UniProtKB/TrEMBL annotation:
One annotated GO molecular function: 2-oxoglutarate-dependent dioxygenase activity
Name of this protein: L-proline 3-hydroxylase protein
Residues covered by the Aspartyl/asparaginy/proline hydroxylase domain: 75-175
Domain L-proline 3-hydroxylase C-terminal: from-to ranges: 188-282
Stored InterPro entries: Asp/Arg/Pro-Hydrxlase, IPNS-like_sf, Pro_3_hydrox_C, Pro_3_hydrox_C_sf
Pfam families per UniProt: Asp_Arg_Hydrox (PF05118), Pro_3_hydrox_C (PF05373)
Source organism, top-level taxon: Bacteria
Length: 289
């Protein structure tokens, strides 16, 4: 099921600006998924299983019903959007997210949570930023202000904001499973509008020698820079027509060519953790403890 637009919200600019100003002043909680990103990545927990705005853990493995946190009370317009537009009976988690000079490596979500068809992740964009892009195994796309997107997080996917400007969005998680259809995320069936055309990003054909040029990084890769190289490789597909998952294969090839078995082991563990399998509460780090 490819990522796609589900509808569009009309936004009250003044009320939204007031809420976003409050979000910008809120302290960022501890981030349980920090290893997936570099740059500024802030998740403010508005709705979750515990009702605690400091709890950013996705409880997909238990499919726990969500409820508002204290923080949602401070952003009344966003709270109104959630309860007016969306089916809160299926809503398990909502995070207000800001990204600045940021990227997230190609990865799959829900690996530790259970069957992917039990989860449905929706993104709502609160501001435009032409330098912020998202991707999955099929395409690279720009999500525009007010658009409601299904992000197929079971596919390998990634994101980037190469600018110093913010890009606020809402990340909503819904219970899915048997009998679920995408329109079920809305409170009113008529708000489901999958006919909106997405803003796709045109990429350049990849040079035939690109893999060989990237493998030359084997001459410099080390424990000091392997994380930087992993994130660099993870951004190549945003501009070149290469498979999104190729970055992890390149990293394995680079570390193998380096002749350092410890680096190769780290690259293979990273590929497994980010795109193939991981356990609930499992941790990974590119850097020594």
């Amino acid at each position: 099921m490819a990522s796609r637009i589900l509808g569009r919200l009309p936004l009250d600019e003044d009320r939204l600006a007031q809420d976003m100003a409050r979000l910008a002043q809120a302290p960022a909680p501890q981030e349980p998924y920090e290893v997936f990103t570099i740059g500024r990545w802030v998740n403010l927990n508005l709705w979750n299983a515990s009702g605690d705005d400091g709890d950013g853990f996705f409880n997909g493995h238990r499919q726990v019903a969500g409820r508002p946190t204290r923080l949602l009370g401070g952003v009344p317009y966003i709270g109104e959007l959630l309860t007016t537009w969306f089916n809160t009976e299926l809503l398990t988690m909502v995070r207000a997210r800001n990204v600045v000079e940021w990227s997230i490596v190609p990865h799959r979500d829900f690996l530790e949570s259970g069957p992917a068809e039990d989860f449905f992740r929706v993104l709502v964009f609160l501001e435009d930023n032409e330098h912020a892009l998202n991707s999955d195994e099929d395409m690279v796309f720009h999500m525009r202000k007010g658009e409601v997107w299904f992000l197929d997080s079971a596919q390998i996917h990634a994101g980037v904001n190469i600018s110093s400007r913010s890009r606020w969005s809402l990340c909503l998680d819904f219970k899915a499973g048997a009998g679920f259809s995408p329109g079920d995320v809305f409170a009113r069936a008529g708000d489901y509008d999958p006919a909106i055309r997405p803003a796709l990003v045109e990429r350049a054909p990849a040079p035939a020698d690109l893999p060989d040029r990237l493998r030359a990084l084997s001459a410099v890769v080390s424990r000091h820079n392997i994380k930087d190289i992993a994130f660099l490789l993870g951004k190549v597909h945003f501009t070149e027509e290469v498979p999104i998952g190729a970055s992890w294969d390149w990293l394995v090839e680079i570390t193998r060519a380096s002749g350092d078995p410890a680096l190769l082991d780290l690259a293979e563990r990273a590929r497994r953790f980010f795109v193939h399998s991981r356990e609930v509460y499992e941790e990974f780090s590119f850097v020594p403890a």
